[in-house]
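DATA CLASS: polypeptide
GOAL: derive structure tokens

***
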Amino acid sequence: MRVAAITLNFGAPDDTLVCVESLLGCSYRDLLVLVVDNGSPPEDLDRLRRALPAGVELLETGRNLGFSGGNNVGIRRALCAGADFVLLINNDAWVERDTVGVLLEAACREPRVGIVSGKILEASDTGPTRRVWYAGGSWVPWKASAYHRGMGEPDRGQYDTPGDTEFAPGCLWLVPARVLSEVGLLDEEFFLYTEDLDFCLRVRRAGYRVYYEPRARCYHKISRSHWTDRSAASPTLNYYSNRNRFFIARRWLRPWERLVFYPYLFGSRAVLALLRRDPSYVSGLWDGLLGRSGPRFGDSVPRSLASSHSGSPL
């Protein structure tokens, strides 16, 4: 069975090349590696073209399509190439040698699997750590958000039991092609953040399972300040994560859940905007209320955000 692995690049390709190297080093050999350049500056794109190993296919979008739009370019190419499974991986992540094979084994072993993800551990510029970033996830409707189990905890094997989960982040997904054909691609209205939650909910609504396989290990080079010190979160992150929760609420919350969600969101974001003197909370709420989707007008999404997905908001 053929697996097509897709990763996005935007800007300097250093992280992307490490990710690609890990994919090419996997023990599973029937693997097509696709790199989607999401509108990088010319000098970075030229460097990527020259540095990519032979056999890796480069798709150039010409502009920043966001996380959902960029991945969709790769997914369409993968399906046209006859892939049986599509692997999405952040460009600032890398996998162990057996990860792809373990994910595929789980997808073939378990019935009605729509997404398989693995144990994702934190990494930094100096290398991998033993801190958990994702080891299963939960969906909290009244917050219109999803959360990672075990985030920040030392990995002591406490999350080594495979099984169904409610949410898996788009940092590492293996999805059967037939599921993509039935459920559809990532929704480009979101542009950035929470598109993975929406897709998980769509997969589960269609009767498929989101499955956690801890033997498949991935390392994600995240900025810990964004997730352990929310005062350091970027305005771009704050804007999209809060705006897009309105889309989640309108699509997936029951009326009584919305009655709890809207006061919670407006109240908590107003407090954060005042304490942190950050107007991105307010602009995100305003555009979400008005139903404005896609990229924010005049926005230039930073490299680390345009090519990766980093989790769910508070």
About this structure: The radius of gyration is 18 Å.
